[in-house]
Amino acid sequence: MNTASLMTTLPVLAAGMAGIFAVLGVLIGAVALLNRLTGRK
Questions:
Q1: How many CA atoms lie within 13 A of 29 on its CB side?
Q2: pLDDT digits (tens, 9 = 90+) for 5-28
Q3: What does the alpha-carbon distance between residue 12 and residue 28 come to, in Å, rounded to a whole number?
Q4: H-type helices in 1-41, by residue range?
Q5: Phi-psi group of 39: left, alpha or beta (phi > 0 → left; psi -120 to 50 → alpha; rest → beta)
Q6: How far is CA 21 from the centre of its chain?
């Protein structure tokens, strides 16, 4: 295994994972907000 290439691709992997978690957080927040606004009364 080439550790030099691993070290160069690790920041890209971390940025991708952070982006995925950020998008999931926004989606969960939007669903929770919509549930609060349009929930049963």
A1: 6
A2: 999 999 999 999 999 999 999 999
A3: 24
A4: 3-38
A5: beta
A6: 1
